[in-house]
């Protein structure tokens, strides 16, 4: 099957690497034109370059983008208007985690985690909806986490921020539906995925990446860690008209963890 999102105009945050790069690439492969944004401008540009080399010049563009900054969101939306000709798919992928339990987590880290994971979606949707309404039907896809549904004693900031993404997505979905915008909003909740974040985790704990992957896989009923395209496939589905009757919902991509 190909061309599932042909003609769609998509903005993907956190597109410099990992999940964001996978989302951007698979959307382009299925026919969308993509604006790749990231605070890492060179990384976003590299993602766009790779996409254009594979799928043709003008398929992807990039800009530097601090998702916690409302002014940067205005620039990103303007760039979508200018470079893509509009916007009807918004993938709020940028995110971060912080260390520390409720006694050791620094408040500055807590606030930064919420700024990147939650405030970014508030700013993004508020700034993007006017343009998306002009190019409806549309889809907002917010990347949450299974950690937004299942808690851990070691990451209160991450748990709480990703839970906020889950509920914020529902509120946005109902707002758009009530106002007949023809714009849907859903959240995706992955568990462990093999991205550069796991490389950093391995270094932080001073263990081999392979050992870490085996340890994480043992926690998952399916017994393997996800790949970026396992999540990007769901992004394509939600971006496409195949999911036109789905809004205010959550997709769990957790290998069965939430079933336990």
Automatic annotation (TrEMBL):
Name the UniProt key words of this record, in alphabetical order: Oxidoreductase
Concerning InterPro entries, the annotation shows:
NAD(P)-bd_dom_sf, Sc_DH/Rdtase_CS, SDR_fam
- Protein family (similarity comment): Belongs to the short-chain dehydrogenases/reductases (SDR) family.
List the NCBIfam families hit by this protein, alphabetically: PRK07069.1, PRK07231.1
PANTHER family the record matches: DEHYDROGENASES, SHORT CHAIN, OXIDOREDUCTASE UCPA
Q: What is this protein called?
A: SDR family oxidoreductase
């Amino acid at each position: 099957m190909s061309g599932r999102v042909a003609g769609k105009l998509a903005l993907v945050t956190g597109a410099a690497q990992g999940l964001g790069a996978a989302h951007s690439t698979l959307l382009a492969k299925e026919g969308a034109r993509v604006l790749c944004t990231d605070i890492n401008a060179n990384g976003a540009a590299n993602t766009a370059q790779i996409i254009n080399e594979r799928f043709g010049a003008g398929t992807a563009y990039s800009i530097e983008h601090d998702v916690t900054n409302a002014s940067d969101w205005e620039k990103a939306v303007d760039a979508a208007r200018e470079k893509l000709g509009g916007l009807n798919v918004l993938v709020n992928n940028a995110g971060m985690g912080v260390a520390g339990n409720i006694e050791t987590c620094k408040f500055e880290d807590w606030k930064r985690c919420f700024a990147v994971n939650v405030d970014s979606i508030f700013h993004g949707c508020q700034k993007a909806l006017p343009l998306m309404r002009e190019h409806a039907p549309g889809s907002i896809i917010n990347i949450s986490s299974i950690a937004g549904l299942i808690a851990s004693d070691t990451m209160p900031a991450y748990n709480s921020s990703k839970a906020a993404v889950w509920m914020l997505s529902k509120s946005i979905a109902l707002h758009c539906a009530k106002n007949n915008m023809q714009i849907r909003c859903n959240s995706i909740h992955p568990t462990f995925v093999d991205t550069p974040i796991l490389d950093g985790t391995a270094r932080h704990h001073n263990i081999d990446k392979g050992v870490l992957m085996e340890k994480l896989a043992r926690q998952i009923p399916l017994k393997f860690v996800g790949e970026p395209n396992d999540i990007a496939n769901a992004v394509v589905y939600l971006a496409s008209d195949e999911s036109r009757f789905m809004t205010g919902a959550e997709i769990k991509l957790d290998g069965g963890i939430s079933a336990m």
